[in-house]
Amino acid sequence: MTMKQLDSVTTTFQKATSLSTSTEPTDSGVGTALTTAQRKRSVEKLLEINNPTEVDNKLVTSLESITGYKVIELTNTRFGSHGAEFYTRGFDITVNTIDDAYKAIRAVECSLATMSPDTIKDQLALLATLVVKPSGETPEDHELRINSLAYQLMEYPADIVVFAIKKVSQNCRFWPSYAEFHQHIEWRVKKRKMLLNTLTKKLVDLTA
Q1: Over the stretch 143-152, which tens digit does the pLDDT of each residue have?
Q2: What is the pLDDT of residues 50-109, one digit of tens each?
Q3: Which of 137, 153, 157, 169 has its C-alpha lying 20 to 30 A from 109's C-alpha?
Q4: 131 and 175 in contact (C-beta within 8 Å)?
């Protein structure tokens, strides 16, 4: 199957798929570890796109280019007070070769690249100037709060963290709890992890 030509931004995920690095276990099973340089480039690209939904769309297009097949999102429907809601329960991905599986996994790992704690602290310091801080908080308390939040947020993709901080700054008058960040993060990162898990299982099947 011949896929459409990708634009230069989309191919960033695919260009970072060098297989020269060693294979190491990941949280989802067998995967490939990003080098420091690859992680840095990935974070830069995620922040350049600056839109988690657009990142997800470009990632799927990149995976389709790598494998030559459409990525099928499996969804369920539930009905609530606001009507029908659709949520993703997984993905159906066809991969024919081990090489393609490694490349596809690397593309997803690039979309999961995380910022350094210091960069997140800078973002949170800016947020602190936009909201009301807790009454009676000392500089030491403030530093502890920033450090604690940065430690929690450093495990999530760079673009999603920046998006969550922006949303919190728009919706919170007072210094937010971690839960207020997490509500903007969990469901967004879940899709990328589902893609990684699906591809990892494909790789395991191909190498069995």
Answers
A1: 999 999 999 9
A2: 999 999 999 999 999 999 999 999 988 777 666 666 678 899 999 999 999 999 999 999
A3: 169
A4: yes
